Amino acid sequence: MATFVLTLAFGVLGIVLMLGTLILFRSWRGGRLPLAIATLCLALAAWGVCDMARAEDGCEVGAFGCGHAEMHPQYQGWQNKNGGNCCSGEDCRPVRAMKDEDGYWRIFIPEFKGKSLGDWIRDGWVIVPQSQVDAQDRFHDGRSHACTSPIAGLAMPLIYCFSPAQPKI
Fold first, then answer.
1. Which of 99, 105, 158, 166 allows an S-S link to 149, with CB 3.0 to 4.6 Å?
2. Is 45 helix (H, G, I), strand (E, B) or coil?
3. For 82, how many CA atoms within 13 A lie in the half-sphere containing its CB?
4. Total domain count, the chain
5. Per residue in 125-150, pLDDT tens?
6. Of 14, 35, 57, which residue constitutes the final position of a domain?
7. pTM for this prediction
């Protein structure tokens, strides 16, 4: 919701600044050219921020990098059971998770949607090794979180750390 409000605000700001730029360009002969150029730069910057907010809004939960920025400070201190760091800068994110009929946790990784690899991956649902399952709701936000290797070019992602959400009753 906050991203939507930010997108709307910057969109309106961008339109106002662009209209102001058009008005100023029409009167540049009066010595207002530097002001018109500065206004145009501000409009373009506002438009760029608006597009960045939209890009984050458009990512699917569980996609590599989606949602990492908002939680990065918490992810930095996350360590696995062997004391190794879970986060290397962009690989942790909120994920959809479920426990399968065999009692294993699975996380949904959209990049693997439609793919299967034995029992390990079933239509995007990737099994989490028991050794990587951490305490429930580690970040106290009611969401599951995982840190994985980058997805590009891999048949199977490595899961560094996983914290399931509290079970819903």
1. 158
2. helix
3. 7
4. 2
5. 999 999 999 999 999 999 999 999 88
6. 57
7. 0.64
Strands (E) across 67-128 are located at 92-99, 105-108, 116-117, 121-122, 125-127
Residues 47, 22 share a domain: yes
In whole angstroms, give the CA distance from residue 9 to residue 5.
6
- Residue 73 corresponds to which tokens in the numbers above? 């400070």
- Which pLDDT tens digit goes with each residue over 8-58? 444 555 555 555 555 555 555 555 555 556 555 454 444 444 333 333 457
Q: Is 66 exposed, middle or buried (0-12, 13-18, 19+ CB in 10 A)?
A: middle
In 3D, which of 15, 87, 10 has the Cα closest to residue 56?
10
DSSP letter (8 states) at residue 164: P
Give the list of residues 6+ apart from residue 67 with CB closer than 8 angstroms, or none.
59, 61, 93, 94
Residues β-bridged to residue 127: 106
Give the tens place of pLDDT for each residue, 70-123.
999 999 999 988 898 999 888 899 999 999 999 999 999 998 898 888 889 989
Task: Report how far residue 63's alpha carbon sits from residue 95's, in angstroms, rounded to the nearest whole number.
Answer: 8
Q: Among 28, 57, 86, where does a domain finish? A: 57
Q: Domain span at residue 148? A: 68-163
